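Posted in: Structural Biology > Protein-Ligand Complexes

Title: Requesting predicted complex, tetrahydrodeoxyuridine in pocket

I'd be grateful if someone could produce the 3D structure tokens for the following input. Sequence and ligand are given below.
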Amino acid sequence: MKDIEINIKIRLKMESELNEVERDLVEKAKQATFRSYAPYSNFSVGACLMLENGKTITGSNQENCAYPSGLCAERTTLFYANSRFPDLSVDYIAIAARGTNGEFTKMPISPCGACRQVFIEVFHRQSKPFKVLLYGTEGTYIVDSPLDLMPISFDSSFL
Ligand code: THU
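-- Reply #1 --
Done. Output follows.
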């Protein structure tokens, strides 16, 4: 038997420690939560990504009365960006969420498994990592690559 240890680095920054780009993306992700359509969960998620040319794109979760037909903020935003600008890589994505009380979550929002899988696809598609910023009022987690959020991931090399 052998143990395999995987080390990942998650940076935790207080709001005051965010650099200018990070602060801007987090603020835009927070604003995007107010454009969420979440009448069923009342959990409003916003995302803001930055493309390699500096353009920012925001999106939010879009729910549906047939629940599985809805889509998370992360995938809404990434699919839109990749469909509008297929040749521009993603450098960052920031995510923020407001819970049922309307307040931003204290803990950094944690993307679901399906969104992480899409992050991995984007990573391979552009052959370049991108930073993921997960906002919470008590701190923002920052990882340098989607691989840090999903080690041992499935990718097209298995097909
Ligand atoms: N949701 C997101 O948009 N992103 C996440 O990272 C977690 C969950 C959405 C899906 C659904 O509309 C609502 O939040 C509650 O799960």
